[in-house]
Amino acid sequence: MNMPRIIFTFAVIFVLLGIGAYLITGAQSWTALIPSIFGLLLAIAGGVSLKSLKHGGHIAALVGLLGFLGTAKSLGKLPALLTGEPVERAAAVGVQASFAILSLVFVALCVKSFIDARRARTSNPSRA
Q1: Structural domain of residue 17, as residue ranges?
Q2: Count of H helices and E strands in the chain?
């Protein structure tokens, strides 16, 4: 698993999600750009991971975890949104839920990478 590539991929996805949210909501509030801010933070972590995969990966995982924790509450409103029930600020709920799901997938990939790296180190102690 090429973690720097995954980090940069999610960085681009988050930036595009934020820009899309900003445009969909009529550019009314800068808060729609929050996913883009997280994307930029991930890009920085990706840059760090090119020099030190361990440190960059951990920074990226933290950014992803914070993104998930900050938007997880929107997942409770997602069923109502998907069934067509009226939801206050439906666009915001949709974007936040998307961001939460993407962040959770990203964190899961980070954890898998950490587990794989640990297994590789224990199976080949000379690489430690």
Answers
A1: 3-127
A2: 5, 0
